[in-house]
Amino acid sequence: MPEYEPVVGMECHAELLTNSKMFCGCKNEFGGEPNTRCCPICLGMPGALPVMNREAVNHVIRTALALNCEITRDAKFDRKNYFYPDLPKGYQISEYDKPIGVKGWLDIEVDGQVKRIHIRRVHLEEDTGKLFHVAGDESFVDLNRSGVPLMEIVTEFPPDIHSADEARAYLMKLRTILTFIGVCDGKMEEGSLRCEPNVSIREIGTHILGTKTEIKNLNSFRAVQKGIEFEVERQAELTEAGEKIVQETRGWNDAKQITFSQRSKEGEQEYRYFPEPDLLPLEISDDWIEQIRLNMPELPDSRKARIISEYGLSAYDAAYLIEEKELVDFFEETAKLSGDAKLSANWIMSDLARLLNTDNTPIQNSPISPAHLAEMVKLINDGTISGKIAKTLIEEMFTTSIAPGLIVEDKGWKTIKDTGAIEALVEKVMADNPAIISDIKEKGLMQKKGFLVGQVMKASQGKADPQDVNRIIDEKLIG
Amino acid sequence: MLLNREEVRKVALLARLELTDDEIDQQAVNLNGLLDKFEALQEIDVSDVEPTSHSIPMVNILRDDLLVQSLSRESTLANAPESRDGCFIVPRIVGDV
């Protein structure tokens, strides 16, 4: 069987973070009671006239700049005509031949290799309503989402992406950029970031592109990866069996982990695009672009490089922290307050991450503030508490949101500084374990010393400093 | 350029118009009449005219990102041939999974 490689184009849609919809003043918000955020414009009533939302246009220019695009100075809107019950006007206002951003790129990293993924276009359009299919022969339509500003980002053709891993990395990177610059909340589970990969396969070494299929309903990074992997496998099997791949849209069934045929695309749909007569063109000036560039937040790549050089973090830690803007914000604040970036990062990535994970709390709602975590790191570093006690302390901080200093005081968790008290514990443990002592002294089994240290730590309820304990045991063994 | 009956039928389908054979014939005459007029326009020399999508000399008509009161749900659904549970009801359009 010949080796096949996937060829993956990515089409992503991001709902923009604005107060109001794209062409009217209805509220742009997820969920809510159906059909309560609608007006004649987003309902497509005859005679209603759309007016562009300035902030939505700014968001797309911002994204185009962050994705290293050229800005189309004379961008304009067009009508894309088709009939579907979630599209009340019978056309979608979109950008056809003059998208705001063109010819961009972003870099991804897979298995330590940096790869540049080229972006063909970034354009602005409006979202459709939502269709709910229930049992029976009817569907329900909610038009709250109709007219929400939607940005489409499409990778260059022919595609640079040749594996499910690369597709996933691309999407994660894109999401990070969009959330860092504040244009989209990136919530795939709520559909504010959606991704429709088109997938084909070809024999490695050849350059002919095969028939592609488009995958829909991918609601997580994992689904994107699994969906592409499944599709590649399916297409390879069909090809091996001498069967034809049908150009079609396939849905992802997350429960069954398979794609299924939705509707076949018989050639290009006839959308009969033409310039939207209800909207005048844009004229994007140097000043306008400069204004947005000046207010651009620090982008993920440069922020990652900075936290590595400024705080001496490993590339792994930096990559982990940079995935969410709120997470890296939390880290930087903690690191600055605690004066120990590495230890701050360790606690954030291990115990705090685990605690947040157990009840799905996002980092921005963490019951432990950066100030409290920084205080805890300081308590460890100045020897007030042991690392072992800190493991219990952080749980308590998470449950109560009380400052660590107060908890330590209240519970009596300070490290025992009194050498005499530790000596007494060491002597008791040694007296209780004569067999171990003789193993060490007579047979030279030094590895058994760890057992003694453990017993003393246990007897001190974790409050002794392990270094003190080690030193005192050494002294007693010699003496 | 002349549209034949099949092409007229396709245009009607794209517009979701159900036409009888007689109406197809009639529309072929109408549409071809229109196309003739565009053919006439094609003869004008526009080689020194910049292409434009709009004839009004205005650009950047934008509004601030402010909220305006939406319609009540009752008003939104008022013209719906069928509605239930606050939603428009339409015939089911996607097959079973």
Explain how this protein is built.
The complex is a heterodimer of chains A (479) and B (97). Chain A is α+β, with helices and mostly antiparallel strands. Chain A folds into three domains: 4-288, no CATH class; 298-411, no CATH class; 419-478, Arc Repressor Mutant, subunit A (Orthogonal Bundle). Chain A is 40% helix and 20% strand. Chain A contains 15 helices and 15 strands. Chain A has helices at residues 54-66, 164-180, 221-240, 286-294, 300-311, 315-321, 325-338, 341-358, 370-381, 387-400, 404-411, 419-432, 434-443, 449-459, 466-478; strands spanning 4-15, 52-53, 70-71, 78-81, 91-94, 101-110, 113-126, 130-133, 138-142, 149-155, 193-203, 213-216, 248-253, 258-264, 274-275. In chain A, the strands form three sheets. In chain A, strands 3-6-7-10-1-11-12-13-14 form a nine-stranded mixed sheet. In chain A, strands 5-4-15 form a three-stranded antiparallel sheet, with no helix packed on it. A two-stranded antiparallel ribbon of chain A has the order 8-9. In chain A, β13 (248-253) and β14 form a beta hairpin. In chain A, α7 crosses α8. Chain A starts with a strand and ends with a helix. Chain B has 97 residues and is mostly helical. Chain B has a domain at 5-42: Histone, subunit A. Chain B is built from three helices and three strands, in the order ααβαββ. Chain B has helices at residues 5-14, 21-42, 73-77; strands at residues 62-63, 83-84, 87-91. In chain B, strands 2-3 form a two-stranded antiparallel ribbon. The longest helix of chain B is centred in the first third of the chain and has 22 residues, at 21-42. The model of chain B has no long low-confidence stretch (mean pLDDT 90). The chains are: A alpha+beta (479), B mainly alpha (97). Chain A binds chain B through residues 18-20, 24-27, 33-40, 43, 51-57, 76, 81, 83-85, 131-133, 136-143, 251, 253, 260, 262, 270, 272, 275, 277, 279-283, and chain B through 14, 16, 53-54, 56, 58-71, 73, 76-77, 84-94, 97. β2 (52-53) of chain A pairs parallel with β1 of chain B.
